[in-house]
Amino acid sequence: MDKLICKLVVFLFIVAPVALTQAQIQKGSLTQGKLVSAEIGPADKHNYDLILEEGQFVFLKLMQRGVDMKISTFDTNGDKIEDFDSPNGKYGPELFTLTSGEKGKYRIEVSPFDEEEPEGEYDIIVETIKPKATTLEGKTDEVFAAWNNDYSPGAAVAVVKDGEIIYKKGYGLSNLEYNIPITPGSIFHIASVSKQFTVFAILLLEKQGKLSLEDDIRKYVPEVPDFGKTITLRHLATHTSGLRDQWNLLAMAGWRLDDVITLEQVLKLVSKQKDLNFNPGDEYLYCNTGFTLLAEVVARVSEMSFAEFTGQEIFAPLQMKNTLFYDDHEKIVKNRTYSYKTDSTGYKKSVLSYANVGATSLFTTVEDLSLWAMNFSNPKVGDETIIKKMNTPAELNSGKTFGGALGQFVGKYKGLNQIQHGGADAGYRSYLARFPDQDFAVSVFSNSADFNSGRIAHKVVDIFLEEALVEEPEEEVTETEAQAESISVAADILDSYVGDFELQPGFIIGVILKEGELIAQATGQPEVALAPISETEFDVVGVEAKLEFIPNGGDKVKAIKLYQNGQIMEAPRLKAFDKNAVVLKEFEGSYHSEELSTTYHFKVVDEKLMVQHSRHSDFAVNPLKEDTFGGNAWFFGQVAFQRDENNKIVGCKVSSGRVRDLVFSKVE
Fold first, then answer.
1. 3-state SS of 59-120?
2. Average pLDDT, rounded, for the chain
3. Is the pTM of this model over 0.85?
4. Domains of the chain, residue spans
5. What class is the 189-242+277-409 domain?
């Protein structure tokens, strides 16, 4: 279900942060086997030289100690090769590689991910220098070099071409306590990659004439409330239902995501909801709830458990002998891989105790998932009609597409048609990418929360499909840069663009002027430069996105538009607001949600408004605008307090990305 992105809005505004005013500090040269320790400040960039011969492969490790770091590598001409940043926060390893072309001096740049990071420490070491690989297999091993050891979690990979597995391998450990290695036959929990199997099961039943994608979900699961609007099975399968996401709801209700979470608990929460996030079909918003409901539809229509139905109708015919939907958290599964995360003490178990299926909980191997990938090219289960439905882009009520299909996402990768989905639960990371025109697929699984399965999978794609890939022409980039350099926007106009703009509840884009240039910063993300392409339009540097400022007759602009991922979103300007004038005591009290059957307590502690719950650690909320606060818990993004006609606070509405405006009433 990808809980790591729950705390962000659906639209990822910043994906490649650009440092702006950091101080360049030369730290000397790196040599193999010599550990270098350093302290780094929030405005620092540390540069290391690395002298390499022609055609060498280098594996390096940076250990973070109290600061989230990012690394960039540069070639002998000073051109950037690659950026590295693992999703492991302020502690744990950043593992990265470098392959030399010509002989000479290469550069490693180390800097805090966020300029607002406090001072921290790190260690960096060159683990390996060797001649670069020349075979497909050797190059793939280099991609996984960081996990090819006998002391850490690792990964498994399988590559399919023309109906057969042409490469498969395991790296690292499946179980750290017993030193069990990962193999291509190791069984992983693959999280949201499960969703395409759930849709496929629905389509098998549709083919049998037992249901239709256009059916109302309440026909099969009447526990879903009547919101006055029809939610179809198609809406559920394309993340366009408007239903609130089950993981956010559970967390808001007091569950930890390493608790046992059952189907019954999810259905009870869904049955108590009174509102949708939006009208069905109007928007796309990733929603795990829909796939849990689809699995329940399969169970009720087939009169088998979802695990039994998929085992009988999909896994057995495809000879996926090591695959099952895990609907019993106490069930023993031989060859099961366990998941891990890192903190300041090293590796720790990342516990997962789900007893619900459909949105997640598929257990499989890279070998078995390869058999599934082959079925899309040469169907043994289902038929071409089902495959075509699965792969066809979904449409919103407006007729627009958004990259989603049925249980998967469709798009392009370096000029090639790609159908893909990734997954992240606990410390499990998974990714399946299919390239139908090349009859090619790659599966990558990991049991480390630090692992970026999508990035690694595409590195493998780059190796095996190198001759088919199409890189963007260099001249297009040069033309854009030249255009930006030729445009000058008057200072008074730039000043009218400065302000805070709310893209989604709790997700604000702040625009400031720094040394005569516009800088943008989205909630929880680093600053990025804005490069003018016209007087009102600006490219977001390092990101495939554009901001447009809507003119307001020479006055401060009232809104901006964000263009990203084929979509346009408007963000109105927030009114000027003095955060220091907020009387926090006004908001103290207990607030209860009937929809969650839970109560939160707001209390001023050390001049901060703290939120307290019996099952969560206390966290602060900070003023964003009048009567509205932003939370720093992923499931509590924004709190908008409500007043009555006497200006008395009577409740609040809480939003958290995949849940909008959930009502809490003040009870004391």
1. EEEEEEECCCEEEEEECCCCCEEEEECCCCCCEEEEEEEEECCCCEEEEEEEEECCCCCCCE
2. 91
3. yes
4. 16-132, 189-242+277-409, 474-572, 579-666
5. alpha beta
